[in-house]
Structures are given as C-alpha cells and as structure tokens.
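2024-03-11 09:14:02 INFO receiving multi-entity request
2024-03-11 09:14:02 INFO entity count = two
2024-03-11 09:14:03 INFO echoing inputs for audit
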Amino acid sequence: MRDSYDAVIIGAGHNGLTLGAYLARSGLEVLVLERRHEEGGGLCTEELTLSGFLHNVHANYHTFVDLAPPVHDLDVRGHGVEYVRPDVQMASIYDDGTALTVHTDLDKTCTSIARFSEEDAQTFRRLYTEAHGYVDLLLGTLMYQPPMSVKELTRALATFGVEDRSEFLSVKLRRETINQFLDQHFTHPKVKAHLAFHGAVCAYTNDVPGLAIGFPLLVGKIDNWHLCIGGSHRLAHALWRDLAQHGGVMVSDADVQAILVDGGRAVGVRLADGTEVAARKLVASTVSVEQTFLEFLEPRATPEELRVRIKNDVKHKDWTLFSVHLAMTTLPEYSAAQFDPDVNRAWVVNLGYGSLEELNADFAAVRAGRLPEPKPNAAVNSLYDPTDAPPGCSTGLLRQFAPFAIAGGGEGEWESLGRWYGHRCIEAWRRFAPNLTDDVILDWVPYTPLEIAQKLPNMVRGDWMMGEVSLANMLDQRPLPELGQYRTPVEALYMAGSTQHPHGFITFAPAYNALQVIADDLGIDAWWRQV
Amino acid sequence: MADIYTAEWYEEVRDAMNARVATMKDLPKGILQIKVEIYGDGVSPYVAEGSERHFLVRIEDGRCAWYREVEGDDPDVRLDYRFRGPATPFDEIAAGLEDPITAALHGTVKVRGDMRFLMRQAEQVKVLLEAYATGVQTSWPLGQPPYATTSEEALRA
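2024-03-11 09:21:47 INFO inference complete, emitting structure
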C-alpha cells in the first residue's frame, strides 16, 4: 500500500469493489480498504458447520444477473463466476399439504397457481407478461441511473399515459400496500400469500404503504433468482480480481478510523493503526451513513444539522432475519410432494404462510420485538450446486423474519435465544419435511440478527438492506435528500454503498450510479455508457 | 407521398417532427444520436428475414437534423439511445396502427439509453413519436400493414 491514490474506497463489499474496478479500468489509481480479513462484505461464504459445507452467511440470492451492467462491463463470468438459475425457483408449502411452485417456465407456474384459482393463474400470466415487457426499461430508468424524484417519475408516466396502457401500473400504487394490490387483483389467499412472501424476501414488506409501486417489478423478477456456484463469495473474488488486473489494490484488515478533510474537501483516510493514505481525487464510502458521518468525519467537517438528521431521521428496516445453517446427509423430502412433486426441487421454500393475515400478524409481532412461531423459508443450494457440500450431502439455510431487539431484553437476548430458536426453526422445517430427522443433520449453527450487526457493522441493527425500504426512503430521498445523489456536503466525498438508491441486495446499482456522478464530476470518459 | 424507409420518407418524417416541436418551449440543448435497429421478422416485406436495417437519427437542440440509413455500429459514433425491434411493429407504428409508447412499454421495441432524460423530456418525446407515427403520408409499395400476421405473432415468431 502506497501513501496516496487517486481514489480511496471504504469497504470491499460488492459495491466498493465494483466502483473500484470501474475506476481502475478508467485509469485511476484505486485503493479499496476493508475492515474484515477478506473482501466481499455480504458476499460471504464460510464453512460455518463442517468442513466442505459452504454456507452463504448473508447474500444467497442474486437477481437480475444479466440486466446488471457491471456483470458484463467487469466480465465477472470471465473471472470465474458461474450462475445457475434453478428451474423450480421457489415454492410455498401450506399447512394442509398443498403447495404452489414458481418455475422458470411460465406455463408451469400458471398451472401450479391454477390448482388454487384459474382466475388468479390468468391474472398472474397477464401481470408477469406485462411486467416482463417493461422490466428492463424500468430497471434502466429506476435502478441503474442516479435517482429521479417520485414527482418527476409520476409526471412522466402521466405524460406518456402509462396508466391507460397498463393493467397494473397506476399512480395510486404510491399510496397502496402490496396487500392492497394483491387484494385488488387476486382472489385466493394462498396465491396472495405466496406473492406477498416473495415481496417480503425481497424486503418489500406487504403491509407498508407505498410499496405497491414496486410490486410489478418484483413480479418481473419472480423467476429470475440465481445461485452463484461455489458460494456467493466467488462473485466478490471475481470483482477483486478485476480490480487487481486493472491496477487497483484491495487491502484487508484495514480498519478506517477517520476520513481526512482539508478545506472542506476529503483528502484521504486514517486507519486504526495510524497509517494515513491520501486521496488525490476522491474518497468513496460504501459503509453506513452512521459510520461515515458520525464516526469517520470530525463533527466540524459536516453541518451539525446533517449530523442530527442522520441520528434522528435515517430509517432502518423494522425487521431483520434470523438464520440457521445446516449440514445434512440428505435433501428434504416434503410431504407436499404428494400434491406437487416439484416442491422437492424448489430452491427456496416458504414454509407455512398461507394468507396475508398470517404475514401481517407475524410482522406486527416482530415489530413489537416478539419472536413469531417459526415459519422460516428454506433454501437448499445443494439442489443446484453440487459443489457446496461433500458428495451425497447437502447444505440447508433457514431464514426467519425476526426482530433485532427482543422485547424486554434487547438484542443481547439473542446470545441465549439463538440455539433455542434455531431448534424451533428446524422443527418447523421438519413438520413439512419429515425425513430431516436428527440423524441426517450432521451439524447446524444459528446466525442471529445480533451477529449480523457484529459481523457487518454497516448493517445497522441487523438491517440487511442498509436502510428502510419504504416510499419515503426511496429514489432521491434515500438515505436523506441531501445525500440522495451520491454526493455529500464534503467535497470529493461520495456515498456508494447500499445506503443509497436503490437499496441493498446484490444489484451493484449504488456503486454503478455513484460512478456516473463521479465520472461527471471528474470528467472521466464514461466508456461503460454504451447503448 | 414517399415510400416507407426511403431517404425521401425520412426527410418528410424529419420535417413533420420539426414542425411539431417548433412551437415548444424549453427544448433541450445539445446533440443526441439515436440508432434505430429494425430486424426482419418474416412478416414485414420491408426488412428481409435474417437481415437488419439500421438508421441513425441526429437531434440538435431538440430538432431533428438528419435521419439516415447506416450499416451496423460505427465505433466513432457515440450513441445516446438505441431502439431495437422486429420490423412489423415498426411498420405498424409508421402506419399509425401501433402506439410507440405501448410498444416500448410492452417490450416489443427495446429502448436503451438514459431513461431519465427521456422521462424529463416526456412532452417532447411524445410529440416526436406522434410525428413519426402519424405525421406523414406513407406509400407502401410492397403492401401495407396490418399484415396477415400481427406484430404480436411476429414477435413470438
């Protein structure tokens, strides 16, 4: 590590590495600093249970893989990343032994829905077809561009008369919940529950007003879930490789303590060991706004009003995830396979939510700090990635909607509750897959919301989206209006992580969008802007 | 009345577009270059199946400067937008039978480029599209849409 670079980037998650790789390819001298021992952030794959069992600790699902410009621009496949798109993407298994499956084949999905409601199957086909028509247009407009305002968007949609040309897009969606959208268009409780479950797994909680506006886009990706073969960390490694091949440097175990500011301009960083690194052109932070503005910057470097607003107004998700990682000697065999054999090949399975009311009740409980009766979702990567477990064995991942702080005891309660609640989640899985007896589970470990925040402090309070997903915290309002365009009040300091539009998840979009702003500010030739 | 996709036809389209925007205020400054790529779909007689016709449109300060047929991509020409789709829907748009905004919304015609600019200039974009779709009288020497097979069927084909 030298003592100065053109660009110093804080955080080597997929956003930090993506921004670094683009800038390195643009000829800048780039340094990416990572607090942990390895690159990746949420792209973290570890042998949490036993040797040879690969567990994606955070990011497991990669969507819109081929619509994300960095996948092509940075040649991630050329760097060894291999994706598989499971043909049975997702399923819901209900308490009465019935099941609904979502396939990459639309006809099969509609056939599955039609077993519950022919009318809903027809509606889903129309919704899916419509959403697929504009999904890349919307992504290009909303995800891979610095954000417009809701007002600008609605004005344009009104001018183009989109509402008259669409069955499902409407200005009123910005006031509605996903529940309302589903109640208007679908009839069967189980169909609605599955679609709401899919939204919730994407962090679009079904009872939050305004999130209906994103629902058609979610349907557009309902069959676009990809698994990174060999673990999600492979993607991080590919991005690091691209960075390195173009002259960039990633340094791990580099704990940034301060962003150095001179004359109102970010000029470098200081590490915990006292090392100072100068940034000739820019500093970009991909960690939380709290870390960036309240820990790394001297109070006098930013307006006091901004510091107050970050303390008071930056919103985080009001629920998080409790996980259980399992090493098993078999694949689950669901009782519901008698109803629909394809559930045994479903990558991700909703275990038990059969109505919107059940989801509503559990999110209400979680927001009150209570642990709901487990209805986890189960992902079995080994179904589609034979490299993630030893021959004949399988990994399992259970994820349960959960509070960060437990009512009456706070987040510290997770220290004692983790094993107990994990066991209950496994019991819930076993209820639907009776073959998962204790003797086929070689080992399992809980991964609590508290551990999320401890492992990745930028996921404040276990917030795996790095900011509330709500209409008030979307587009140019995220995370605050004054930070919504990736620039900050400190000259040459940019925000480029998932605190920014659009949100968390493996989208690359915060970094890609920050790149556009940085390129404009620095006069970098935007070679990637090929249409 | 000019034949579809000829230089004369594009001149008429250009004039129609410029006439429509002449009274508009706050036209965006600068140059935009738009590539229109039409591929044969086995239905339209104007683009042979397996072949493509490409057109380059140059917009200067909100007005269409020229509109010409080109071969493939020129690495020296920086494109701002690319519109791509099968020939039948393009024919139908030019005949005023298909709505261009609907075609984009349904993905029949794929649009690439900075959508924020198009959305912020929605009024002008709408006027330009209307001029393209309904602004000129077109001659169809090889037959006029709607063809026996619709654009939806052509797209599926």
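2024-03-11 09:21:48 INFO post-check: The radius of gyration of chain A is 23 Å.
2024-03-11 09:21:48 INFO post-check: The interface with chain B takes residues 130, 132-137, 140-141, 145-146, 148, 152-153, 155-156, 159-162, 165-166, 530-531 of chain A (CB under 8 Å).
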